[in-house]
């Protein structure tokens, strides 16, 4: 293999990895541009197996989007509606949202994952009551709710600081925040595709506050639209720098752009090869975040399976009611059972392990 790496011009990167030297942004760009995807994948798989062996994680979760009313105008979004009353707009009552958990009383759920639009007319009490109600119904379930973009929106709308918002939500049951809303950190791109919501600095600052308050969180990257490869690497490096400072990120999640039903519909979706390479480079560049997730809703099931040999060690979970990607044209199933997830992992040649939100193993 050393001969092949030398011939491919990647031996220096392999040696850096062997001696635990951090890859540079230039190294990351070389990996993106290298013609041999299989070799890049081999390097990423080696790093994955050094950390996790053949173990692959999943969780028993429920994904809820309680409102899609959103005052932001992200070009890539097929989910949001600008105001109540528009075709397709909805906002669940608290009872409707709580019923989503009540109706799953017999399921061994460990997590409710909540992401919403930026609704300008709901009171803050709606969100606090929402979480408190879930905790009354299922005290054992971890609530992973509200992206950093939502936290920033709440703070601005209700005249609070970001920390005050987090503290008040934690007091009623919030235990983690998801990674959505990161998009691409590069200001050039963000101004074009998501100009009217929290910028990269504030996104990262909110996660830093959450980490300081004791929460573990995730971080994402939306790729395959108008960003350049060097901007993908810059995003990864900024995640790595933020993790150096706080240590609170559990997983990095590359999210493939889906073009259907949004203002970027003329763009092609990223290919399977691009998705696998992005996951691989993520594993190699972001050396201080334990887990790389292949979110099967975004990648497609078969690509997610392949990704388990390109650096990914987590498939997310059962999901159950995801709308954001399906409204953007995802043709994946609405849900997978834990048995199906285990089957997919085993068919990919890996060992499935159920985890909770904090990556504690759940006994079968």
Automatic annotation (TrEMBL):
Write down the top EC class of this protein: transferase
Q: Which UniProt keywords apply?
A: 4Fe-4S, Iron, Iron-sulfur, Menaquinone biosynthesis, Metal-binding, S-adenosyl-L-methionine, Transferase
Q: Which SMART domains match?
A: Elp3
What the entry lists under Pfam families is as follows: CofH_C, Radical_SAM
- What does it catalyze? 3-[(1-carboxyvinyl)-oxy]benzoate + S-adenosyl-L-methionine + H2O = 6-amino-6-deoxyfutalosine + hydrogencarbonate + L-methionine + H(+)
A single MF term (Gene Ontology): iron ion binding
Residues engaged in binding S-adenosyl-L-methionine: 76, 183
What EC identifiers does the entry list? 2.5.1.120
Alphabetical GO biological process terms: menaquinone biosynthetic process
InterPro entries according to UniProt: Aldolase_TIM, CofH/MnqC-like_C, Elp3/MiaA/NifB-like_rSAM, F420, FO_synthase_su2, MqnE, rSAM, rSAM_sf
- Which biological pathway? Quinol/quinone metabolism; menaquinone biosynthesis
Q: Where does [4Fe-4S] cluster bind?
A: 70, 74, 77
Gene3D superfamilies reported in the protein's UniProt record: Aldolase class I (3.20.20.70)
What does the UniProt cofactor note say?
A: Binds 1 [4Fe-4S] cluster. The cluster is coordinated with 3 cysteines and an exchangeable S-adenosyl-L-methionine.
The coenzyme or cofactor needed here is: [4Fe-4S] cluster
Q: Where is the Radical SAM core domain?
A: 56-287
The record's function comment reads: Radical SAM enzyme that catalyzes the addition of the adenosyl radical to the double bond of 3-[(1-carboxyvinyl)oxy]benzoate, leading to aminodeoxyfutalosine (AFL), a key intermediate in the formation of menaquinone (MK, vitamin K2) from chorismate.
Q: Which family does it belong to?
A: Belongs to the radical SAM superfamily. MqnE family.
The name on file for this protein is Aminodeoxyfutalosine synthase
């Amino acid at each position: 293999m050393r001969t092949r790496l030398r011939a491919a011009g990647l031996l220096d990167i392999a040696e850096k990895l062997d001696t635990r030297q951090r890859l540079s942004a230039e190294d990351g760009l070389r990996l993106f541009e290298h013609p041999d995807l299989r070799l890049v994948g081999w390097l990423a798989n080696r790093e994955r197996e050094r950390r996790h062996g053949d173990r692959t994680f999943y969780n028993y979760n429920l994904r809820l989007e309680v409102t899609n009313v959103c005052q932001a105008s992200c070009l890539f979004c097929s989910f949001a509606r600008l105001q109540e009353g528009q075709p397709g707009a909805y906002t669940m009552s608290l009872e409707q949202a709580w019923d989503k958990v009540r109706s799953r009383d017999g399921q061994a759920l460990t997590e409710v994952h909540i992401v919403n639009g930026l609704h300008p007319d709901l009171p803050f009490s709606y969100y606090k009551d929402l979480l408190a109600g879930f905790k009354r119904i299922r005290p054992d379930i971890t609530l992973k709710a509200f992206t950093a973009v939502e936290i920033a929106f709440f703070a601005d709308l209700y005249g609070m600081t970001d920390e005050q918002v987090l503290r008040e939500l934690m007091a009623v049951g919030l235990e983690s925040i998801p990674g959505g809303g990161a998009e691409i950190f590069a200001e050039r791109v963000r101004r074009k595709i998501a100009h009217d919501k929290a910028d990269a600095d504030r996104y990262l600052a909110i996660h830093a506050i959450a980490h300081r308050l004791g929460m573990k969180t995730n971080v994402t990257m939306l790729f395959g639209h108008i960003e350049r490869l060097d901007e993908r690497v810059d995003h990864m490096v900024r995640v790595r720098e933020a993790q150096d400072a706080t240590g609170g990120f559990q997983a990095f999640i590359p999210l493939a752009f889906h073009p259907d039903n949004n203002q970027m519909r003329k763009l092609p979706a990223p290919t399977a090869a691009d998705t696998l390479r992005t996951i691989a480079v993520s594993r190699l560049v972001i050396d201080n975040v334990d887990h790389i997730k292949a979110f099967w809703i975004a990648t497609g099931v078969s690509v997610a399976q392949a990704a388990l040999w390109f650096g990914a060690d987590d498939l997310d979970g059962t999901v159950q009611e995801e709308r954001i990607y399906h409204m953007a044209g995802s043709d994946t199933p609405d849900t997978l059972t834990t048995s199906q997830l285990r089957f997919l992992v085993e068919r990919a040649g890996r060992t499935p392990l159920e985890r909770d939100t904090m990556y504690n193993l759940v006994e079968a």
